[in-house]
Queue: 3 jobs
Job 1
Amino acid sequence: MVQNIIDVRNLSKSFDISSKEPGLKGTIKHFFRRQTKSLKVIKNISFEIKEGEIVGFLGANGAGKTTILKMLCGLIYPSEGSILVSEHLPFRRKENFLKNITLIMGQKQQLIWDLPPIESFYLNASIYDIDKFEAKKRIKKLSEMLEIDEELFIPVRKLSLGQRMKSELLAALIHEPNILFLDEPTLGLDINAQRNLRKFLQKYNKETNATICLTSHYMKDITSLCKRVICVQEGAISYDGKLDLLLKKLSPVKEILIVCRSEEDASKLENFGFTVKNKIKNEITIKIENESITPSLKSILNNFDIEDLFINEPPIDEVIGKVLIKKEYDI
Amino acid sequence: MISNLINRKIFTLLKVQYSNMLEYRVEIALWAISGIIPFFMLNIWTNNNLNESINISDILLSRYFLCAFFVRQFSVVWVVFSFEEDSLMGKVSPYLIQPLNPFFRYFAQHLAEQITRFPFALIIAFFFFIINPESLWIPNLSILLLSIVSTFLSFLIQFLIQSIIACLCFWTEKASSIERLLFIPTLFLSGLLAPVVSFPAYVKSWIYLTPFPYLIDFPANLMSGNETNISGGLGMQILWIFLLYPLFKKIWSEGTKKYTAMGS
């Protein structure tokens, strides 16, 4: 049986936020009497993640996804509840724990800006107690996987965003962590760079059985990497389960465009009991529930002379986008 | 364990930071030149014959201010400003989840800069002796070694004081303003503007209980061959380090619990 590597119970996090009214009056008031309030950004959440799983965290901006990742990797201290990651309390930041994890933030970098990435790699290797020979081997292996070569010797400031991101990944993976926390790792990358990064993460997960927790606003990242998603809405978990099931739940109906041989057939089909979206001459678009799609199509093909038919999957961005709209969609 | 840390982690950090510093050669030269306050002070002291009141000859005074310049070059600390910026911008986050306290990075950065500054400081000293040839002296080797140790201890004290203040970023966000409060006593009581011996006796007795005279005055007096209590001075430097280090550890461990990883 696969072990749980992450176990989160009744986790909450509050931040003290100070607010200020606009204008000079507000500024003076703020200077003498600062008003702070405690904002609960994570509200009593619980979940487990198994070893080797790739889990996507979905949610609107400010929903609390990144805060969850930050608590999981020990960067911030939880207000309430418990977290166990690889049998460690993350916020204690014990050496054994830190050597087991990595955090990659799409908008933050750890590479030394004025030096070539190779210098940061060797530095990280020494921080993680990896000897020079082993470091060299790992850099070679990872750079082949990431398809970077000459870039290793060019100052970071002169690299493109994609090259920099690949170098960031290499720096973050040199100690071969078995838990990866990725906060929008493809942010700002072009389509090819995004695809390469996803391919790399899939390969890394397959080869090392690493657990990956990922947040991204690019749905392609989520759909191509994650079988399981956790949806976060205003600090609480609104869905935790298979991505397929979520998609079915959010989009229970498919649209089917049927091209009949005659207009007469199309008119008959219009009155056959299906929900019709529209009809133009011999073309008719009907809506069928996912569960009854096979028998319905069978019946249509048996009873009508059909020239062609197209099943339209709703765009995944649109479907998952419903999750990101606060309060609008109750999963 | 500790030797491994020093041998591998710190050495690699130092090497990398030194490479990084060499990218900023011109800036380092300008920073070295900007530290010539002691030479201005020397000019004020000698032109106004102020040294007569404290029974120090012109030559000893010029050596003192040259040594104060050297000590300052190798003990100047700015960790509070670097940490404050990194903390507010969330840049410190990736370092917090590595098995090495981020302050080691800043420590290596400072040491690397000191190594980079060294040749520029020597050039300035060379010109100083051309202008003041009578001040030229060759210090005793053991005194020179003790002065280097004392300068390093002075750097450690300042690094620890600023690191403690830097950790206040976890509570106040703008910890550098607290550091500015310390700037005035550091300027006046450290011996940068005037040797501490020039202060009235009752003031001196209080000053010597603070860490300030051990930052510039003591190592500069030691290096320049002026009369000073060597064991007492080194003892006080070590005592301050022993007092400040646990305080830093405590404030660091409490502060990281408050870290909100802003900007990331």
Note: The two ends of chain B are 33 Å apart (CA to CA).
Job 2
Amino acid sequence: MQEIEHHYDEMDIVCERPATLVDKRMHYCPGCGHGVAHRILMEAVGELGIQEQTIGVAPVGCSVFAYHYMDVDMQEAAHGRATAVATGIKRCWPDKYVFTYQGDGDLAAIGTGETVHTVNRGENILIVFINNAIYGMTGGQMAPTTLITQKTSTTPYGREVEVMGNPLKITELLAQLPGAFYVTRQAVNTPVNVRRAKKALLNGLKYQALKKGTSVVEIVSNCPTNWGLRPVEANKWLEENMLPYYPLGDMKVPSKEEIENA
Amino acid sequence: MGELRLMKGNEALAEAAIRAGMDAYFGYPITPQSEILEYLTREAQKRTQCTILQAESEIASINMVYGAAGAGKRVMTTSSSPGISLMQEGLSYIAGAELPCLLVNINRGGPGLGTIQPSQGDYFQSVKGGGHGDYRLIVLAPATVQEMADFVEVGWDLADKYRNPVLILSDGALGQMMEKVELREQRDRNAREIPSWSTIGKTADRKRNIITSLFIQSEEMEQVNLRLQEKYKLIEKNETRVQESNTEDADFIIVAYGLSARIGRKVMEMLREEGMKVGLIRPITLWPYPYEAISKAAEQVKGFLSLELNAGQMVEDVRLGVNGRCPVGHYGRMGGIIPSPEEVVAVVKDMYSKTNH
């Protein structure tokens, strides 16, 4: 592969790697949303000036190596247990900022119990939930959030409700829990959605200082490789198929009084 | 001299944990060890402002332990057999990530849901690796309420020294029985230094700390394993603990740990009164196992009996130590039945007569 070097004057730089992101080539597939989600999360950490107080928890799934890229102290959790690990950290260090970064299989299948109870206890952490409706790392199997009729390597004829039930809207479920302080669903398929998602991550991180409960930021993302689509087609498929079932927007937002009186 | 109290084994262990400067405890109720969680929720937080949390499951408990240990804290969980089974994946991760922590199993009868009565049926799981991969737990086996208390701090200190999980393997009888216990003074929680590898926020003067057991390149994974094995060898060399009684002149040895060792001691005394030269070897660490003490005794005695509350598990380690030099028998009861000294005396006499004549 030919390496192309670009030379710019410093004044030409309009966008660069945030200091909170490690200078390392990511292992994610071309067009994957993880790279963008990593970037905006770490931008948020940098802009809030909390890098020295932040501990992240990586899941099992494609983002298992998140700690290769995010320049904060991190722990790698067993599959599904990220929020339990985060609970252990946060209970011991209540003034630190703790986040988990989990995929749909990790958070909404094998880790459902930990997810629900962590939010129900109102642990003061941020849960970043990447929903791309498929298992990426293991090669494209059905996820709890796989859409009806969506083909995966374990639903080769399309997901059937009679066999596998409905796609799990776990974020809506979590929004019902009193322990949830801030719950929102965002996406990273367009520039405007990326900016909104970053705003949500900024909120989720800074709300921890209020110690009023759990923040959950779902990010609807893609998987060009396992969806069998080119990156641009994947983002189009996301918009046409995922967003009608997983509509974007806030599900639970703290009132002004809740924020001011905290 | 410390404070003297009459306490249940479970409560003595909980009290000792508070006094040893525990920072955090995560647990889930299960008989016969729920008193530990109850005692800690009642006593610990108000006295030392530590973290006590009833988790939603044993799986959550062990992963909370992982998080807290990775964040540099002195942390413990306790459970009983089925709950310990649920923790095995997490334990393997903890061993792989080399996190110091303390785990307590108040062993009950199995398999399956089994019984709530005492058992030593979890020996294999404890010392041979109940979870996946090549790892070891340091396993301490108390035989008295006093040791239930004392081994808490011993365990945490060993865990810190080797960055390795430590298991206290007790049983339902030791957990529930009351005995006199001498308690040490309260340790200052803040006196313990937070290890430099802890994930508590990356400061500008260092690289980020990462707690993981994932090493996906084979060459790197093998190096990690080799380093772990070196550590385990060091632990075997330095930390093997055993108590020997009347072994100097013995021509027959009972090997027993924990609750069984109390019965074994009584059996030994009864047989000594009848003029039989019986000795007792009590492994205090079940891993590392005191093979040397067994091997040395095998040079002079005519036989061994491994006395256990199971179908014959530790007997395999006794045989490894003896290495075929003399007969090794096993006697055990299961399902929560504790054998009487008299029935064991009969077993030893039978074996003794066959090995001596």
Note: The mean pLDDT of chain A is 95.
Job 3
Amino acid sequence: MASRTGRHGAARSARGGSRPRLPLRLLLPLLLLVALVAMLMLRGYVHSEILADHRVQPPAATTDVPEKILEGGPVIDARGGRTESLSVPDHRLVLTFDDGPDPTWTPRVLDVLKKHDAHAVFFVTGTMASRYPDLVERMVDEGHEVGLHTFNHPDLSFQSKKRIDWELSQNQLAITGAAGVRTSLFRPPYSSFADAMDNKSWPVTEYIGSRGYLVVVNNTDSEDWKKPGVEEIIRRATPKGGKGAIVLMHDSGGDRHQTVQALDRFLPDLKKKGYEFDNLTEALDAPSAMTPVSGAELWKGRAWVFLVQASEHLTDGLVVGLAIIGTLVIGRFGLMLLLSGVHARRVRRRRFRWGPAVTEPVTVLVPAYNEAKCIENTVRSLVASDHPVEVIVIDDGSSDGTARIVEGLGLPGVRVIRQLNAGKPAALNRGLANARYDIVVMMDGDTVFEPATVRELVQPFGDPKVGAVAGNAKVGNKDSLIGAWQHIEYVMGFNLDRRMYDVLGCMPTIPGAVGAFRRSALEPIGGMSDDTLAEDTDVTMALHRAGWRVVYAENARAWTEAPESVSQLWSQRYRWSYGTMQAIWKHRRAVIEKGPSGRFGRVGLPFVSLFMVVAPLLAPLIDVFLLYGLVFGPTDKTIVAWLGVLAIQAVCAAYAFRLDREKLTPLISLPLQQILYRQIMYVVLLQSWITALTGGRLRWQKLRRSGGVSAPPPGADGVPPQRRPGAVDGRRPVG
Amino acid sequence: MTTPPFDPARPVPAVPTAPAASTAPVPAASMPAATRRAPHVTAPPSPSPYPSAAPVPAGPAGPAGPSESAEPAVPRQKEARRGPVRDRYFDLLRAVALFRVVLYHLMGWAWLPVVFPSMGVMFALAGNLMARSLKRPAVQVVRSRMRRLLPPLWLLGVVGVTGMVLQGWGPNEDGHPGWWWFHLVYWILPLSDPPFAESVPGIHGILGADWAAELGGPLWYIRAYLWYVLLSPVLLRALRALPWLTILAPLVLSAAFQFGYLNLPGERFPSALTDFSTFGACWILGMAHQEGVLKRLPRYIVPSVAPVIAALGLWYAFREGFKTGYDLDSIPFAQAVWSFATVLLLLHVSPSWTEWPRRLRRWDRLITLLNSRAVTIYLWHNVCILIAATLWDQLWGFDVLYENVPWLLESPWPVLAIAWLLIGSCIVWFGWMEDVAAKRRPQLWPDGGKRPAVGRGGQGRRDRPGAGHRA
């Protein structure tokens, strides 16, 4: 059955005819979005972009800290109510590295340690361990110990007990996921020597001890993070008089080449002095601090690490996608501005002519389905045309008396042909068979022409190579917000997109609202086809493949009525985007063919696919990153970048409006369009993709058939029509 | 303020430092309550919104005879013939605004005025009605407006000032007896804020010590309203000549105050002008709506522009350190911009309901009551909240409750319920004054309940499909 009625049916069902389908069509895009957002949140989380706390407690009094702790060794054992300090025996040195693992410096530190056969302790943060699990595994494999350094490095004295517990368990989870072990060593962030314990940090230390951890601070601080030079690092790290010590170093958080160089000299030097480099428990002659984990805990850890890895890779992929889309968008805008400028200059030259003036009469086909409301305006506007026309109204089984209205007008040169409801392509083919003249203009039943439209539209046929002409469809009802948005879209689509496609010779669509064809061009390709939901795109591509030129006539203006509700817009755009995909697929063989077909297939088709099907699919990335940037920062830069993109859009739109001699006021709704309208459009496209990839053909057949039994037309029972169906069918204006 | 005798056991949040920046100088003694609500009292009802919504059908007989809108149902039937019809959408906005004011004054949530800027909405609705009435001679309209506005205030003054004097307030309060007597005139004609006692003992266990400040706090609204009424004839003329310039002028004035281009001496004058500039744009927007200025714009303009303006206002508020206790009331310019944008959107949406949509029909009587007694509710609600909180705090004296359900004693929700019960009784005790002011037969409980069946059922069913929804 008819795609035309089919569309009508689709529009109705979207409004409520088949409720259960509504969530389904949203479900997949929604799931995708939720998954994406979850992944981005996870990434923001392990990159310390959320929940990070960079406050550091100023020094406090030490009255509550036991004397023996202040004067004791760097290993504080507060487990099970104990309050003891342990020191490293003489001639033993425990190197400790905080804040890692780092993808650049940790491997080098590990290499140096291996070279000198030394063991050390790495206090890793949960975020870094989750991101670089391989390095944690390597540490454990090479005999080093790992300890906790919290999940994302806050000063614990600011945190609640709940947060402390969480910091420890998340950190433990990451280590388990990476290396399959648990550890009982802990080093507090921003800690230093045992005698620096104060009234703020001691309760935290006690609490962590009560959770079963040994708290490890240090004896000598290399202060390598200040990058004081290799000599200085060595001087600070070396303990006096052959004593044992715990040395604080860092393998993450910036450039650590000084640390690596210092290690490479420090290790052999001190070895010569009789030092041993052990990990902590070796140095204390205690059982290892790490215990293997198995069962559910292990799998939980692995799942965590896997998810973090997935989110890392996903974001990398997204960034690549964003770069692609950015290039595409900017490139496309550049190309549009350039080529539409070229086109406008070309056709606006003073003595520009397509060829000899076309004055012969033409046939105008008006397929109409329940257009009682507007058919009179349509037909009268045609009769007022300053070009000789024959008007054929093909009534496609209307039930609201459309045909009778036209006949009742009794206008000369207007014929009505009735057919059983068979769809728009069939109606057009019937009109084509009845057309008296070689040039045929096609329009919609709800579109109004200016007196000069037909004349302007057919002038390009003066060039014998031109097989079809696209006119300039304009939104008549641009007063509402949704109307203004479509107005912007139409003006940009016609004045930038279509001019560009014209110059490139790959105009993908002649709008159903205003277009003209040579009958001699249409007949060999079999007229209109109902193979796709977008018969206008389909026929335009067929004409290209047959070697005809398709051009744009900017002054052939037609005023059409755009959908006024989101659901009507949705179903219209769904048909357009899905129909375009069908048409591209139908004409895919052009890619390998010879002659004009091959030229279109290898230049036009990829171009159209890229800009109409692939690029819009990546467009949501811009919004995803806008949100990500807004939430995780840098907020200011994100907003500036977004405003920059908006400014580019605004410039292009203003240029298009100027080319079309339109008032600029509707552009005031451009910012809002960017955060509401565009998103609807690509959810629609996403839905088309999903339809196409999941047995779309079947679904489409069903969709068309369900249209055949479309409900009684609005208007027939006295209820004012919500919308005129023809407007829903208004053909794609935007190439 | 709400609960001056705070039980020491109750956690008292930090007292915001922002003093009563604009109007209604709230004495420092009343600050504890400011933890729950901002010192600067918000949101107000339009004086006598109910009858005024159906403005006196300008009969040759002059100002409203007693027959004019004797009760809600009657005017509606009459107006069906006479012209203006109650816009139920505006009634809904007014009721929501009023409810929001009471809620905010109890809770003090900073986000409440952002979600719904009651004062801007109330002033816009009042401006709208004022413009509608001004088809009649200006002097007559202004006089009738004042007659509606002032008697309920006088009633409050009689009760309030008497109470203050009984509790020791007198001419020697601040050492200038002459000024004291002179300022009392503001209770009769509130061209400036009516004075009130800085500290009075209250009634232990029933009425907190700061009751006078609570009573006087909301009166800035009456003063601002009076000034708008007085200036309306001029504003309307300006609006007709230079619509958008007039609408935006108060915002410019507000910016001038905020950014310090304009500094005025004293306290009474700047506070009056700040309030005028803060909500002037809303009042004039209401007038513009009535005059059809907004309708002359393409429909896409307002939804495109208003969010941007609103975002600007919010951005400015956050830049200035928006938080609980330092909210829109403390940042007049942000308040002005945000209210302007919100009101612009609400007026743009304005569906003009002559009948309630089905879902709202069940709220009809409540909304009607709130509308009929808006001034009474507004004038008395603060004292009601204070009494409710004081009463509720008495429960801390019961150890059983204190030990077992401290959360209940700390919860503000029972206080809200009690406050509304008290407000209900104020409607009964003092509400009749609004009828007297409008020269109507006084009613105890004007919720439109006695409406003839025809008005609701029959008409409603017939009108349902078309109810004026604009796409």
Note: The first strand of chain A starts at residue 75 and ends at 77.
